[in-house]
Amino acid sequence: MDRTIKVWSLASQQPGLTIDGHDKAVTSLAVSPDGALLATASEDGTACVWELRSGNSRGQLQATTEPLRSIGFSPDGRKVVTASEDYTARIWELETARATILRGHTGKVSGAAFSPDGTLVVTASEDRTARVWDAARGEPLAELRGHSGPVTAAAFSPDGNWWATGSDDLTARLYPRTVRSTVEDLLARARERVTRELTEQERARYIPTPTAESPQAPEIIS
User: What is the pLDDT of residues 32-54, one digit of tens each?
Assistant: First the structure.
């Protein structure tokens, strides 16, 4: 591996710019929403930001000594998120190089992405889960389970209402952003899909009678 980044011309199908700055292989890259900047992640544990037209460096982010797996820009282009083999992800403010560390995974983090409005981050991990985080505070909001193998990728739908994950178990999964917790909400959602009323036996089986001691399931995201 030559450790370089090449910016290609679609017209000539030739590299118009070669950028050299990492000490090990480049594992991921992303272009800012306005097309002005290029961010790269490397096995050397650093992320770098470059001017896309000139190739000049805009700074290096020393994330970790472990390899980085992915990098992505926030929708406003002012932050990047990196995923690392040290079991963490980091949200970086490009102006200050300040990082918010997302801790909680028990395996290497293979991917990370911002929501379309920039308020959330979703991460994918070899611990077979994806997690959703508050991008401002770095707090975990939800843990997405169901895969039987490492989760290799995670992303938001364009409208931000769904999370998508891909895994080594050869499946992809979709999760609705809003998790409803009350019986009334669940019944309303079921009525959208069921064309008949439940029988008394089905009601007794699937809808437990609430008691004073029955705890209410928490709402993951409001």
Answer: 999 999 999 999 999 999 999 99
Counted domains in the chain = 2
- Within 13 A of 42's CA, how many CA atoms are on the CB side? 24
Report the 10 Å Cβ neighbour count for 93: 13
**Cα–Cα distance between 222 and 217 in angstroms, integer?**
13
Print the domain residue range for 168: 4-176
Residues 192 and 105 in one domain: no
Note whether 72 and 29 are same-domain residues.
Answer: yes
Name the E strands within 85-180.
Answer: 88-93, 98-103, 109-114, 120-125, 130-134, 140-144, 151-156, 162-167, 172-176
Residues 35 and 52 sit within 8 Å (Cβ to Cβ): yes
Angle of CA points 113, 179, 144, to nearest 5° = 45
Check pLDDT > 50 for residue 104: yes
- Tracing tokens 């949200």 back to the chain, one arrives at 91
* Spatial distance between the Cα atoms of 108 and 69, rounded to a whole number of angstroms: 9
Alpha-carbon distance 83 to 89, whole Å? 4
Same-domain status, 117 and 210: no
Question: DSSP string spanning 19-62?
Answer: EE--SS-EEEEEE-TTSSEEEEEETTSEEEEEETTT--EEEEEE
> Which structure tokens are listed for 184?
């009334």
